[in-house]
User: Which sequence fits this backbone?
């Protein structure tokens, strides 16, 4: 599987990662090399195992309310937090 | 007083108070850490108890947790991870947080935002990773025990390269609550110690169900040290043919010697085939990275950690904070994982990797039908020089070729020191067992350790 610069840019957008041009070019090359190794999975006969993979489910616990984490500890870790208990972010609309 | 830390800890406990033990540990850290960079944070107010170190991707109340990443900024967890809370209840004291590859992504601790940790047997070489700091802390006798985490060998591989014991428990044996998530279907908190008995004791402290992690098993917690003295007579050990076939030189000779030790104790040792084992690294880098790409989406500059000073819009907060905060290896893995889950490639990559993983699991089940244990060396080579593999991600990944299968299959595995290379670098035997057979694992490892005694050997830097 060859990853070119355009494909690397598409993936970077999905992943919310910013790269400069040189880094994007390098990433595309490294991904191509790693995926060429991973492509050996194509040679395995997976007959009888396709459904096993789909059938796995993580067990879930009951959704029971419990005391939340202390708000001041949350505020102390936040890049920007308002006095009335909200995370502050730049404007959402207009970019 | 550093001598205290060279004793197995039941002897150390008898010889000194909890305060003296913590003080000895902090002194050892102060003396050696400038050369080894094993600790990212030292808890000078640690109080008293049996000193333990905790990998810095496991959260600790009142101390920083960095994951060796710039993106965590000055994050301090409001709570202890379940495993840490259980250690404290059992009388342990956390003396510091250990260095790692950023977000546990790596096999050398070179991918740390705070500089590489160094191997105490040769400081020009890597200690392995990603739990390199934890392995160094125990190998250099700065602490008797440390927690690490495993996704593909991140406890066993550095334990092997540093000459100490490293355990990856069964998936679900130890709660992951408070372990910063990497690959949720493969992650497991692990243990690094000098000796097998200390490892069994720590597992007894931290194992068990936890309502905060629904994958933490309700399987009863065993008396893990109960059979350590029982020997290996009549036990069946399978040597994984596909893994051993490619071994060369001194790693091969050391492994053959380990087989002789087991046979000498009356064990039955024979070859077994695990046909798909060679695909483990390929499966691992799709499955673990796909899960990582989802897990690491939470680091977005909004609720905690680094926010880019350049960001003027919300979109820029996401892209620039992550662009500035994550290192190259983390970005590479998020990119691979995002690709494998993206529309048009999901079935060909993620779906296929999961199917081959199911086949690998079936191969292991068949092998455990004939054998109580499976054996390989822990790593294909001893510690490599710092910088030797940083430009070649794939060759770095292949260092986990013998360890990653246990994570994918969910079984427990232990790395036990098995001697030294000609240049006096530690070598290691890996023993794998069926799910929840940790007690049996400690039995075999305990026998091997008693017969060989390599845990008594100390790095020159500790003796100096």
Assistant:
């Amino acid at each position: 599987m060859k990853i070119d610069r355009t494909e690397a840019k598409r993936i970077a957008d999905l992943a919310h990662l910013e790269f400069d041009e040189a880094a994007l070019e390098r990433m595309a090359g490294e991904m191509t090399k790693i995926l060429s190794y991973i492509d050996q999975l194509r040679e395995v006969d997976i007959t009888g195992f396709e459904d096993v993979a789909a059938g796995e489910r993580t067990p879930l616990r009951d959704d029971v309310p419990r005391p939340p984490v202390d708000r001041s500890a949350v505020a102390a870790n936040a890049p920007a937090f308002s006095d009335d208990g909200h995370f502050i972010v730049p404007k959402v609309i207009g970019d | 007083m550093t001598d205290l830390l060279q004793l197995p800890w039941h002897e150390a406990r008898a010889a000194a108070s909890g305060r003296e033990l913590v003080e000895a540990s902090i002194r050892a850290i102060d003396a050696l850490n400038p050369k080894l960079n094993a600790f990212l944070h030292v808890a000078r107010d640690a109080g008293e108890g049996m000193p333990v170190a905790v990998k810095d991707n496991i959260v600790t109340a009142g101390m920083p947790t960095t994951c060796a990443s710039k993106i965590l900024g000055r994050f301090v967890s409001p709570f202890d991870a379940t495993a840490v809370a259980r250690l404290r209840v059992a009388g342990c004291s956390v003396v510091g947080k250990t260095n790692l590859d950023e977000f546990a992504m790596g096999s050398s601790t070179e991918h740390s935002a705070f500089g590489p940790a160094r191997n105490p047997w040769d400081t020009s070489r890597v200690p392995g990773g990603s739990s390199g700091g934890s392995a160094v802390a125990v190998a250099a006798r700065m602490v008797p025990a440390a927690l690490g985490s495993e996704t593909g060998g991140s406890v066993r591989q550095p334990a092997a390269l540093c000459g100490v014991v490293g355990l990856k428990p069964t998936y679900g044996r130890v709660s992951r609550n408070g372990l910063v998530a990497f690959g949720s279907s493969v992650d497991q908190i692990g243990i690094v110690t000098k000796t097998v008995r200390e490892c069994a004791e720590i597992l007894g402290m931290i194992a068990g169900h936890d309502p905060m992690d629904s994958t933490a098993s309700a399987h009863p917690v065993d008396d893990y040290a109960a059979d350590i003295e029982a020997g290996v007579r009549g036990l069946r050990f399978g040597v994984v043919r596909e893994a051993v076939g490619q071994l060369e030189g001194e790693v091969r000779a050391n492994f053959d010697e380990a087989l002789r030790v087991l046979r000498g104790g009356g064990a039955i040792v024979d070859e077994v085939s695990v046909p798909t084992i060679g695909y483990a690294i390929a499966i691992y880098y799709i499955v673990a990275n796909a899960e990582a790409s989802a897990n690491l989406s939470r680091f977005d500059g909004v609720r905690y950690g680094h926010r880019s000073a350049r960001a003027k819009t919300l979109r820029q907060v996401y892209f620039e904070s992550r662009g500035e905060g994550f290192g190259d290896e983390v970005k590479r893995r998020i990119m691979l994982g995002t690709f494998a889950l993206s529309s048009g490639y999901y079935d060909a990559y993620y779906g296929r990797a999961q199917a081959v993983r199911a086949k690998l699991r079936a191969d292991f089940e068949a092998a455990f039908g004939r054998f109580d244990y499976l054996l390989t060396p822990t790593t294909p080579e001893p510690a490599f020089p710092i910088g030797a593999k940083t430009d070649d991600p794939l060759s770095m990944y292949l260092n986990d070729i013998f360890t990653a299968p246990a994570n994918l299959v969910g079984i427990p595995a232990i790395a036990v020191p098995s001697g030294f290379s000609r240049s006096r670098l530690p070598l290691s035997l890996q023993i794998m067992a069926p799910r929840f057979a940790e007690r049996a694992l400690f039995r075999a490892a305990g026998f091997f350790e008693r017969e060989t005694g390599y845990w008594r050997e100390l790095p020159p830097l500790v003796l100096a």
In short: The mean pLDDT of chain B is 96. The two ends of chain B are 14 Å apart (CA to CA). Chain B touches chain A through 63 residues (CB under 8 Å). The longest strand of chain B covers residues 413-420.
